[in-house]
Amino acid sequence: MYFEIKNLQVFYHAIHALKGISLKVNRGEIVALIGGNGAGKSSTLNSVSGIVKPDYGSSIIYRDEELVGLATDTIVKKGIVQVPEGRHIFPKMSVQENLEMGAFLTTDRAEVADGLERVFTLFPRMKERRNQAGGTLSGGEQQMLAIGRGLMGRPDLMLLDEPSMGLAPILVEQIFDIIFDINQTGTSILLVEQNAQMALAIADRGYVLETGEIVLTGTGEELLNDPKVQAAYLGVETQEEKLGKGDYYF
Question: Under a CB-based contact definition with an 8 Å cutoff, are residues 64 and 87 in contact?
């Protein structure tokens, strides 16, 4: 088994945020987890990363090892890296310094240099701005920096939390092109997104999360064509909604 979440339960005091969800990512896949605000998407990723402690009975398996109970740095060492929602770069540090922070567990300087070259190949703009303070970058550039910093950890499985948030449409397309390119180099991806259209367009498979529960699953194409998904997340009216508007003629 490459990666699987089983019966994931998360409570925040009296709030039952995740109600026993289960999902899997096969090696080499992009898997999208879509849903509205408060559905539990970020809680899912934070549970995988060890930031949130799942409740009793939860299981997160990666390469046949149980992750629940492990520290975040141990999980990173095993090959899972999360790029958090909101980017969270270091604004006063240079682009290169931000990237090097992503390799904080690596002591081999040659390996760090190789990582930088890989990021600069994927993001030529980061190479141009390597000495510029991270906080002076545009929103799209900061997202590129956050993804690049994640890649410096040499992840086998990358967790992406709302990478398109707050970006102009043309930048959203660029970010999703980059995510697809990263996957093509061999990195598996679990992608959390509110932009269902873009996420499902590049995903091998997807899950729809509502109020802490998985309510639909299928291939990216199947979910894009599902009337319920179209109505809830893609702005497409169902036939019932169209009829309900009442086109009356007198």
Answer: no
- Residue 113 belongs to some domain of the structure: yes
* Contact criterion met (CB below 8 Å) for 52 and 18: no
Instruction: Summarize pLDDT for 2-37 with one digit per residue, the tens.
Output: 999 999 999 999 999 999 999 999 999 999 999 988
- Per-residue pLDDT tens for 197-209? 999 999 999 999 9
- Dist. CA 106–CA 152, nearest whole Å: 9
Specify if 40 maps to a domain: no
Q: How many residues are there in the chain?
A: 250
List the end-to-end C-alpha distance of the chain, in Å, as a whole number. 63
Would 111 be classed as within a structural domain?
A: yes
Q: Give the whole-angstrom CA distance, residue 95 versus residue 97.
A: 5
CA 153 to chain centre: 15
The first and second tokens of residue 35, run together, are 């849903």
| Amino acid, single-letter form, for residue 77 | K
119 to each of 138, 158, 167, 176, how far by Cα in Å?
18, 15, 20, 16
- CA separation, residue 9 to residues 47, 201, 226 (Å): 9, 29, 27
